[in-house]
């Protein structure tokens, strides 16, 4: 029984039912989803799912996060969700390299009234992380950027995460490619290596969930 999958695939109708029975995106989030799709086309698939966003807002609140870091901001949906969950006076540091995509994010954050909680840095993320204090001061991290650097981001941020702090890592199932022997591209291999690394890392407790494209939780011991 322990090896029997209890997760189920979601048909469009079942996914619609799931969305209807959770916190729905508000007007600002709906507008951000629509603008991302209309302006960026197929690239919009990089945006996290609405149910994942609601989940991340809840998690941010549950851990009482005041200091959060996001690696890979895109058009700002995940940052908006995290910022809304921050404790009073909390701040989110967003790391990205695209002025074009994050310009859309800035508009959404302003419309949502959370722009004052977000510090966006346009630079390679590892350079930005290197400027942070080398103390255990970060409560929450979300990694959703170039897969080849997942391990590097993790290793740079874990020493700065407080005990019991949480790292969330997106796309860790990679549309199933992680178990496809034919998939040998650099991103897939990087995700496999990252998944293997954190599963064996005794500095953290690790749970991988079948949320959207795979969402891994890493709690610092």
Q: Overview of this structure, please?
A:
The protein has 221 residues and is an alpha/beta fold. It has one domain (12-220): Rossmann fold, CATH 3.40.50. It is built from 8 helices and 7 strands, in the order H-H-H-E-H-E-H-E-H-E-H-E-H-E-E. The chain has helices at 12-20, 27-40, 50-62, 77-85, 99-112, 125-130, 150-157, 186-199; strands spanning 67-71, 91-96, 118-122, 138-143, 161-170, 204-209, 215-220. Strands 3-2-1-4-5-7-6 form a 7-stranded mixed beta sheet, with helices on both faces. Strand 1 (67-71), helix 4 and strand 2 form a beta-alpha-beta unit. Helix 2 packs antiparallel against helix 5 and helix 3 runs parallel beside helix 4. The radius of gyration is 17 Å and the shape is globular. The chain starts with 11 loop residues before the first helix and ends with a strand.
Structural topology:
Elements: H1 12-20, H2 27-40, H3 50-62, E1 67-71, H4 77-85, E2 91-96, H5 99-112, E3 118-122, H6 125-130, E4 138-143, H7 150-157, E5 161-170, H8 186-199, E6 204-209, E7 215-220
Number of domains: 1
Largest sheet: 7 strands, mixed
What is the count of β-strands?
7
CATH architecture: 3-Layer(aba) Sandwich
Count helical runs: 8
Taking all Cα atoms into account, the compactness measure Rg is 17 Å
Overall body shape: globular
SSE pattern? HHHEHEHEHEHEHEE
Structural class: alpha/beta
Largest sheet strand order: 3-2-1-4-5-7-6
How much of the sequence lies in strands comes to 15-25%
Query: Low-confidence spans: pLDDT under 50, at least 5 residues?
Result: none
Overall pLDDT: 96
Task: Estimate percent helicity.
Answer: 25-40%
Remind me, CATH topology?
Rossmann fold
